[in-house]
Amino acid sequence: MIWLANVWNRFGGPFKSQQSILKFARCGYLGHVSTEHHNTNIKPDPYKYDGTCSPSFPNNTTSTVFRPQIYFGYRDTYLTKNKTAFFQSIHNDQNLAVKHSRYLNAGNQNSDINQSWVTRFPKSVQPYLVLSRMDRPIGYWLLFLPGAWSISLAAYASSMPNIQLLTLFFVGAVLMRNAGCVINDMWDSDLDKKVARTSTRPIASGDINHFQALVFLASQLSISLGILLSLNQYSIILGASSLLLVASYPLMKRITYWPQLALGLTFNWGCLLGWSAVTGSLDLSVCLPLYVAAVSWTIFYDTIYAFQDVEDDRWVGVKSTALLFGDNAKLCLTGFAAVTVANLIAVGINTSQTWPYYLGLMAATSHLTWQVATVDLSEPKDCLSKFKSNRWLGILLWMSIVTGTLWKSEQENTETCKDCATTT
CB–CB of 402/350 below 8 Å? Predict the structure, then answer.
């Protein structure tokens, strides 16, 4: 707690005891406080902490006199807090402030923004990198992998998947994930300001205005359209039909406890698009169970992710499966894991997969079981860690599909061609 005492001393007012320090922390002053952007002539001497949650302030106190800044994310992005207003809110509702302060600190500790990576770029570029989550590649993987599964399943027996298509899908995943993040932050800027983990996102913090975000979004969508137009006509129509899901997903948390389902339907469109990009049509006996498996998997990992913000979500008034499942969360997670595995078994049967596929599926099942058994849903840091581990689960499944397809005999190519010719 020494650093916390030093922080307060910088603003005028020594701690009387360790008990005062702890009470000060419980009052909500958690985080990294800096006066970097303030007038050094300001003298906050009148603000003496007396060991309570309601220190008194002079009548002429304004937001320009005392504005500690709590850093959560990349360099030069901060959440400005008015000291008077903050303690007034505590006076009005101490219980709410104590709960919120705990997640204020948790949001800081669990931020996965790669500061060293982002700060290598000019300051004018940094907000756009953070807005598009380019510092957090986990989202790219989770969007790309379902399409990679589908492309690899559609490959000829004893053949590698189409590398050109995989490259296009990866670039498209990066661009569309960026676009989705921009749309999400534009819709949710009012909510993001109220949640500790999201309060320093560029639009919420004012680093980027809505017009700038809209221009950035248009550039992402324009390049994505060029990639889509390089596919066959069936895939162009199929890909364009997903835009409604992309645009509406950010609204779902306001109207339903199942935004994770909406995310799953959106994020895993590649299960359909990948197969059609290879074959020019859809084989529902493969694509439908693959899509259901991927959607169920998304609900699984995003519910774990949502438990990071469960208290803030309840406070702000947004909905999630984490709030819906509550104490039954692990039972529900087990159910979604089972749905995922069952549908992946169906995919293997319908594509005549070989033993490497099922070996990989067994390993993936063990990974899902490990997540459910070990995740601490009350610990945001562990929730984030388990969420990120799903990238490796997805890569494991992808490698098992590629290996299983390579293990097939080339005689199956004739059957595959016949199926593609008769499927609509």
Answer: no
